[in-house]
Structure formats: C-alpha cells, structure tokens
Write a structure and sequence with these properties.
With about 450 residues, the protein is an alpha/beta fold. The chain is built from 19 helices and eleven strands.
Length: about 450
C-alpha cells in the first residue's frame, strides 16, 4: 500500500478522520489560516503541542495485512499476494483496537496491502468506531463495489483514500494491472455515492510528475473532498525507484503547482482540500509564499506551522504492522519499537527508555548539518529521518530531499550574524486573538 504522511490539525473533512494531524493542509494554511486558528481557539483541534518533547496520543496507521491484489512499484510495505503467516488474528486485532482506545488514539488508518482483503475488516472498523476512534481506510480502490461501499459507510468509516499514479495507462503500469485505473475510479465513485468522505492520493516521482496537472484536474472533476500529493519515500519496493526521485528544482516546481492550484480552487470556492505529505520543507515554502503574497496573515501562518511542528514520526503518528510490530511511522519497517503481542501498545509508545523514540522526540539535539542550522527547523522538524537514513546512511543527517536554497532559508545571513532567528514578516497585519497554549493542546497516552 502506498501511504504518505505529515500534519496539521485543522477543521475539515480530513480533520474529522484524524488525518489532519499528519498532512500539510495547503488549502487551509495558505488560503484560510484564520479558520484554522478559529478551530484551535474553539478547542476543535489537538495540535502537536511541545513539538520536540511531549508524548502524544498518536494517530495510528495499522497495516492490517500485507496481502494485495496489485504489485505497485513504489509500495513501501512490499505487499504480497498472500498474507503473512504470522499476521495478527481477528481476536488480536480487536484487542489491539481496545488498547488503542484505552490510549485515546483519535484515529486509526487501516492500510495494507489492501485492507479490503482482510476478511474481518468490517468488524475491525465497527470496533474502532464503537470505541470512539475515527476509522479511515487507505486502499487501491479496485475491490470496492456499490454494496461494499455501503457496508464500509455503515460500519463507520470516516474517510477513505484511493491512490492513483497518473491518468490511465501510467497508473496501470505502476500498479502492475491492466484496468487498475478504471477499477480504482469505479471504487472511488461507489464510495462517494455511498456518502463516504473520499480522497485521491498521488505520489510524485520523475515518472508521474508530468501527470500532476491532470491528476489535480481529476481530483476536481471527481469532486473528492481531499487531494493528497505525496513525496516519494524510498523504503520497501520504492527503494528500487530511488533513481526516479525528483531533483530539487522539479520538486519545488511540483509543490508550487500544488500551491497555485490550491489558491485557484479556493478563489473559485471549490470544496477540494489540497494537502501534501512526506516533505516538511513544503511548510516552509508555503510560509515564504504567504510572506510574499499574503503579508496580512503571514504571521499567523508561521505560528500555525510552528505549532504543527513538521515531521511527526514517533510523536503524533505511529505504525503497527501486520504482525504487530510497532514503528515510529509506516516508513520505518526496519526499526521495531516492540510487538503488541508481547507488550501493550501504550507501554511501548510511552516507554522513556526506548532510545529511538526518545531521540525522535528530542530530535533537535540530534539533527546535524544544514537542518540543524536552519531557521525553519521549528516548522519542518528536520524533514524525514528515515529518508536521510535511506539516502545517506545517517539517521540524523539533513533531509536530502530539501529543495529550499540557503538564500531563501536565510542560512547565509544566519551564519554571518550568528543568529538562527527566521526572517519573520515585518507586517503581519492586525494581531490575531491569542491561540491556546500549546501544552493545553496535548493529551498523553
Ligand atoms: S534545511 Fe532541513 S529543517 Fe530547513 S527546511 Fe530544509 S529540510 Fe527543513
């Protein structure tokens, strides 16, 4: 399953599912930051709080099975045609959900493989919903018919995301199945017609990049609630696509395209939220655009982005794989924090002696290189640690996917002036009402 992450707590369709903790909501943050701030003041959001220290109630991504009917080239989970023999049983799955409820996990993303291939999926969804956890689904969409979509809605699915890798044959090539694109769209439409909140996801690579404008058009034409543009993370089968990673210039152009489209959609009152995931430098680019083009709200945008705090692996996002291994997020299959068969999830997640979690939660002290000196570290969180490890061999090296220049980050000026303070807007417009203290937005597991 292709699934991609990041975060901002903002009211909206994804907010209701808990996914808002992890993705960068470009539409809300760039075009309507006052709404986000209003939601925070009204207590509708649980933010990241103290971004580098606190243990959060994480959104949990559970890969319920590795089984999939497709064979995607960029599958981080290296999905197979058969389930793992040691997959969590139905009883173990229900026990896990009850434990997540005890930990007050706000949302559970059921992923895979394809979760539709797990026979007890509806029971798992119902259990999560009954325990007050928002269940969401990440699927390739090909296995959903009209009755299945209605069953998902009745079971309590809050949000369902379908991945596409381009228009038509390119998608089929990536997915390894002729007709996969038609089937995915059919499944998406069934879900929309059943009344589910739906989204489309698209992963950027050198192969898929030319299809970005067409996929943005598709998101609008299909009237989905959310369009998710993800950066590639080279783990699982996607390791084989490392050569397809975009250059900094290509990445930047792609993100600018998303920002442009978000502004256009908002100006036309189209209710489609564009979000990005897996490169927290996007938040910095968003702020730089706000500072240049929307100075009246740029100060508020900066505050909101700092509250969000960038990459959330090991903090407000957690992953449980099909065998019960717990990971900082779903891109860390090679780093297990423990197994829910041996220890309750809450104990694993809250263990102060767990060295990787401790370092991820105090990452500021461990990151070195360019990111450590970056004035926007509070917005970005230093990007993806797992990508730094995959591409450099050093978990704490700067994120190699950062496409921002030293000049626009103020790094040259910072070294000359011995200051890391970001260039804040000189005209932030009328001062907004104060937002809640960050600590009050934090809940513990
Ligand atoms: S240099 Fe590092 S911390 Fe700064 S924006 Fe780029 S990835 Fe983020």
């Amino acid at each position: 399953m292709i699934w991609v992450i990041t975060a901002m707590g903002a009211p909206g369709p994804h907010w209701a599912t808990g996914e808002g903790f992890r993705v960068l909501d470009v539409t809300k943050l760039l075009c309507r930051p006052e709404e986000v701030a209003g939601g925070l003041r009204a207590g509708r959001a649980v933010g990241h709080g103290d971004r580098f220290a606190e243990v959060k109630r994480p959104v949990v991504v559970w890969n319920v099975t590795r089984r999939c009917n497709l064979h995607c080239q960029h599958c981080y989970a290296s999905a197979q045609s058969v389930p793992h023999p040691d997959e969590l049983s139905p009883g173990e799955g229900l026990a896990l959900i009850r434990e997540l409820a005890r930990c007050q996990v706000p949302a559970l993303i059921l992923s895979g493989g394809d979760p539709l291939l797990r026979p007890d999926l509806l029971e798992l969804i119902r259990c999560a919903a009954e325990h007050g956890i928002h269940p969401a689904l990440s699927t390739n969409g090909t296995l959903i018919d009209a009755a299945g979509a209605r069953d998902l809605r009745a079971a309590g699915v809050g949000y369902l995301g379908v991945s596409v890798d381009g228009i038509g044959r390119l998608h089929d090539r990536f997915r390894g199945l002729r007709g996969a694109w038609e089937q995915a769209l059919r499944g998406l439409r069934h879900c929309r017609e059943a009344g589910l909140t739906v989204g489309l996801r698209f992963t950027l690579s050198r192969v898929t990049l030319p299809h970005l404008p067409g996929v943005l058009d598709l998101m609008e034409a299909e009237q989905v609630h959310r369009g998710y543009v993800s950066h590639l993370v080279s783990v699982g089968r996607a390791q084989g696509l490392a050569g397809c990673a975009l250059s900094p210039g290509e990445t930047r152009a792609a993100v600018e395209t998303v920002l442009d489209r978000a502004e256009s959609l908002d100006a036309r009152h189209v209710p489609l939220h564009l979000v990005t995931g897996n490169s927290d430098a996007d938040g910095v680019l968003l702020y730089l655009r706000a500072r240049e083009r929307r100075p009246a709200t740029a100060g508020l945008v900066l505050d909101l982005l700092e509250r969000r705090g960038g990459n959330s692996a090991g903090r407000s996002i957690a992953n449980v794989d099909d065998r019960g291994e717990v990971h900082p997020d779903q891109f860390w299959p090679h780093h297990s924090l423990g197994n829910v068969r041996a220890r309750p999830f809450g104990e694993i997640w809250s263990d102060p002696a767990q060295p990787l979690l401790a370092r991820l939660r105090s990452r500021r002290s461990h990151i070195h290189g360019r990111c450590a000196a970056c004035p926007f570290l509070d917005i970005c969180g230093g990007g993806s640690r797992v990508r730094a490890e995959a591409l450099t061999g050093d978990l704490w090296a700067s994120d190699p996917a950062c496409y921002l220049t030293d000049g626009e980050l103020g790094l040259a000026a910072a070294s000359e002036e011995s200051s890391h303070a970001p260039a804040r807007p000189t005209d932030a417009g009328s001062a907004p009402a104060p937002l809640p203290e960050r600590a009050s937005l934090v809940s513990r597991c």
